[in-house]
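## retry 2 of 3
previous attempt timed out at serialization; input unchanged, resubmitting
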Amino acid sequence: MDLSSDYQFLNKILGRTMKITLKCGLFQGVLQHVDSNKSILLSRVKNLESGRSMPGVKMFFGHEILNENQDTTLSNFKYNVAEDEEEDVEYIVIDQFQQKFGSAILHIKEQIVLSVAAEGVSLCRYGKLCWFQVATRSRVFLFDIFLLGPRAFKNGLQMVLEDENILKVIHDCRWISDCLSHKYGIILSNVFDTQVADVLQFSVMTGGFLPHRISTLEECLIRHLKMSPKSVSFMRRKQQAVQENLDVWFVRPLPPSLLKVLALETVYLLPLRLMFLDEMMSDLTTLVDGYLNAYREGSSVQLGNTESSCMDLPVELRQLADFQKLRREKAVKEYRQNSLKMSSSCAPRFQ
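## retry succeeded, writing output
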């Protein structure tokens, strides 16, 4: 299997459980992302030799993966695909200050990027915040705000949320921002919103169209991380639990199944951000590749006629307009085709 075919194969099995053999042991996890630079992202990682689970999302590089020829190319990754498994994640519930709270805050303060989510009843300035979730690359913390109260923010979380040097990844930050500002006096800053990123990416890929609606986290995970419906079933379990009991987040102790939901909806925000960054950078990468070849693959005569001080927009960069035109034409064509097949209630995403 060559590099390109292996890369395509791995992209087809995104969201599936796979095993990889490293120099330090045998690991299993759910494939979230793979790129041509030989790096892959796995979630729900487990060391099969020690039996230890590793929370969060882990990145593995080609040189870490063993194979028979000690070759580090992507085509020689030693992997096999397992059957889909029920999602699994480790988390730490913080419901008192005496034991775990201090060490959790110290760990969070050391991060450059983390993901944030929250659950409660009518989550806004008029509602009630019950749970506040924070995930780093290695740990997931579930802060029980219902029991901890405002002191949880005053004793460290507020400093993190307002720190402009720590990036917070959130899906639809509007409600959390409103709640934190009006109930706790916290001005949330330096946020990467995956719902906003989804709209921006859609506009880029359709040549300027805007979607007629925003996307849920479940939709983003399926569309961008290629997760299977089973892998995101935890979102539907949350919706069902809230429908059955509007005050479910006040229940103590909260059932482990719902604690897992709180953890999972936070954990996946980190790889989702990385995927958006890859997608947003694709045009830049293409244009830079054109810049690299602009002179070195041309003739010496052409190079001699090139003015180094000329500031006219090069032809290599003008192709960005061509990208946008082609994408827009494709989007219009797909819109017309889909509109013939779909009612207005389930119309395509662009307008």
